[in-house]
Amino acid sequence: MSTAANESPRARGKAPAGERVADWADGRLGIYSLAKSNMRKIFPDHWSFMLGEVCMYSFIIIILTGVYLTLFFHPSMNEVVYHGSYVPLQGQLMSEAFNSTLHISFDVRGGLLMRQIHHWAALIFLAGMFVHMMRVFFTGAFRKPREINWLFGFLLFVLGMFTGFTGYSLPDDLLSGTGVRFMEGAILSVPIVGTYLSMFLFGGEFPGHDFVARFYSIHILLLPGIMLGLMVGHLILVFYHKHTQFAGPGKTEKNVVGMPLLPVYMAKAGGFFFLVFGVIAFIAAVAQINPIWAMGPYRPDQVSTGAQPDWYMGFSEGLIRFMPGWEINIWGHTLVLGVFIPLVIFPLVLVAIAVYPFIESWVTGDKSEHHILDRPRNAPTRTGLGVAWMTLYLTLLVGGGNDLWATHFHLSINAVTYFVRIFFFVGPVIAFLVTKRICLGLQRRDREKVLHGRETGIIKRLPHGEFIEVHEPLSQEQLHTLTAHHQYEPAEIGPVVDENGVRRKVGTSEKLRAKLSSAYYGEDNQIPKPTVDEYKEITSGHGHH
Amino acid sequence: MSSQDIPEENLPAEQEHAHGAVSVADEENPFADPGLPPHEHRIQDIDERAAKRSERVVALLFTVSMLATVAFIASYLAIPHDKSIFVFPIGHLSALNFALGVTLAVALFCIGAGAVHWARTLMSDVEVADDRHAIEASPEVRAKVMADFRQGAAESGLGRRKLIRNTMFGAMAMVPLSGVFLLGGLGPAPKDKLRHTMWAKGKRLVNMNTNQPLRPEDVAVGSLTFAKPDGLEETSEDFQNEIAKAALMIVRLQPDNIKDKRELDWSHQGIVAFSKICTHVGCPISLYEQQTHHVLCPCHQSTFDLSDGARVIFGPAGHALPQLRIGVDSDGYLEALGDFEEPVGPAFWERG
Fold it and tell me: Residue A318 sits in which domain range?
């Protein structure tokens, strides 16, 4: 700020108001050094990079509408008689929580819209995080230096699930109460301390008078508070690491190519918030969600058929539904394996994706930073594992809705359940093998394209009568893009005999690593990308085509 | 719009190359990075009329947003909350919710669409490359930090004064215990709460729907009746907790059809009473198949055979539904002959 151009208006005391405010703030907050590196920060462009934005914006929408809902919701389980304007429930006993939710839905103008935006945004938030994580996983964006940010995102997903669960349990309606009962039954199955945990959570026996108030503070304060912190951390790290980009001409591990935050991404990302909000508002205007008045207040002795949790909890429902009812009674105690095993697998399914980046980096032994994204085909084992995981997840979703599958497709519920029991083990294996084959096939096609060019669809007849298809050589841009990926060598177990001829002990972890490494990068597990020599031999040689 | 619409003077003589782009083919390495491709102009970059059109589109979108907000306010003020409208193909909707939602959606969406259209057509779309820097610190910085830390640690004397260190760790480890004990107030100890229900000898079985005590002749073959203990009213303080354990389902079977001997002993003229609470995770069982006497829990599809001691024949439940021993009192009403002999509902560690 010491150029002559800036000094002269200041001397007359007539710097533009905005500049003066910025100067004031800079003197106290140091905003200029922050803006120097960030105002024109470059963000690469790709459609899949907006998935994370969907999550962030739906989270903001959830907070906005959630604050509105707290102004009207009474987190209390005191029984009251309903006198509101929904006629079928008038005169019925219900908790204040249910009563106030009816009040929001029928007697607060716009209250139903806010409820529906809140709930739809929650579903979209979770779905967005799921797809965003898939994007990050399949393109290898979780590699160094972004492993911590992967964990932040993972925690956001898991906490989002529980925030959603505690949220939809608050209205104390028949459906959500059934879900809470399921949770209580699952907690009771924990060996030794299960009954204590249940009594402590519900303030006594189920359902008691406490859980709505307790879930309320967890739902509106504890979990969203942690999530807000994680989300800010997630964003700071995205800025700090600078965004990843796909390989292409001019794009390297040392640069980031795209358009500046101010003005392009300010407008695009800022505008995208309104697009997301607008779409969710439209869905909430036309699509009913969680009509608690149709289900009625919770009674532990009543239930409706087709009871389903929100989709993101569906896989836990699947686990509990397909598990055989094993119970072991020994020395006067009961080990409820039929419920406890699903309760243990539930976090394990999630932890598997959380720890994956660390497993892969251990196998590769790669300590360098990665900013160029992988195409999923160029990491066949990773892609296969990811699809295997998704197959497991989707199988469990099917299992969680086995009654709906049975009724909608006129199948036997027993058959659907047995299918899930088998496919839980077999499905991921099949998915892994098939995906890996597809990836290798695509790698071969890329290799073919680089070496022989693009199929033009033009058929040429040679003088001696042979028909050939004309292949067009790729441009250098395309050649570069298709050969830019790094291919690892499988890790070998080092020499077992040292320079003095003494046998070295080879640890099991070293053996395991070598095995995994060859499963990832060994022969047949990746197609060697074409080399310059191969290319030259083919293109310069005998006038190919 | 086609290129014929562009005035002659606006057509670039030649597409200029992007800033600093290297696109010289490398003889040695055909796979080498050719550098950023040249920038391709959009119609708006070279034709002011097209740019004006884009500007008008953006402004129109922002104007539509303003109008939608006005419509939102009007809907809020004008539409009665109980009015229902038919919207094809969705069906009947709350008019207020529909109007508020759609106007809000339009108001928001048009802001977003305007901003994105503005960014895509009028703001610069020249791709720029920015350098990345290693996240790791340089060795000098690392050495400085390590030295600083060692100096700070040495000055604190933490490593040298073991007595301070150990007592501090002890104190830090113990102080959270207070918090753990404070959580003790969250709930009572389980004791034998889960082992008992409200049922006791002489308690009449009261029909859940009619609130009248049940006589054997009220229970028809093939019907499923739900019952609660006499004295438990919806208005009772602990109604929810008690009904969560005491809910009962009653069916009448032909005594010859009852395969389980104890079940027959505990029945009255073929009327059997079982806990309605599923032994899996506690859902109330509500689906009865009268031909086979199977009941199905709608939550997780555990299926029990009521003619055979309510044993599990399918699904994830681990044990049979507890049976309540019933008889008839001197006035001819069905009554319990005691509490359930085993805990109802989901299994737990102390159940045994």
Answer: 52-364
